[in-house]
Amino acid sequence: MPGQPNLERVYRNVSIIRNVVDAMRPIRQDAIVVVVSNPVDLATTLVLELSKLPKSQVLGAGTFLDSVRIRGMIADEIGVAANSLDVYVLGVHGDPQVVAWSTATIGGVAIDKSLQYSNQIDHEKVAQECKDRSRSIIRAKGANPFGISSIVCSICASILLDKRNVRPVSCFRPGYGCCFSWPVVLGRKGIMRAMDVPLNNEERAEIDETAKTLKATVAHVLADG
Hints:
Blueprint: H1 7-24, E1 33-35, H2 40-51, E2 58-60, H3 64-78, E3 85-86, E4 89-90, E5 98-99, E6 105-106, E7 109-110, H4 123-141, H5 145-160, E8 165-173, E9 178-187, E10 190-194, H6 201-223
Parallel strand pairs: 1-2
Antiparallel strand pairs: 3-6, 4-5, 6-7, 8-9, 9-10
């Protein structure tokens, strides 16, 4: 099923996650935990459950790097600066992740309403290339440390300096019972608030389906151990 993690890998890593959380005890009640390990959404959900910290204080790197990458890819294709784009990759990180094309803008103008550029962007091709980019880097270099390091630094700076930046990170989503990527405001207390994102019906349905699968996996893992 889409979004179904490799359970063998999950069970191999869950004891590590438990050991890491146990090693952190006693956990300060104002601690903010940033999860980087994959599968990041499942790991973030488990850390939240095991640490018993407030939901605003546990987050994962999620699709932040994917969002940065896809902005760069689109910017190169249409010939504008990446910071002129506002495009988010959301949902469960990996193959199930969803590009929120319905809310994407160039200089504040919706991509699909931009007469000059809308027909030049192959949504499916760009989304797939974004998913494949990390694997391509790992095949070529053997590792992918620099991209994720810059993302983690940005997250930490947003929190420590109370910048109130909007970032797509893995966070607990009420109504779903698990963590996946969604734009939130990051500040000194962690997740200050989640943003309202008016996704279209297709995008929301894709996220709903994979979130339900992830929630079932989390429940299965917690029940076994």
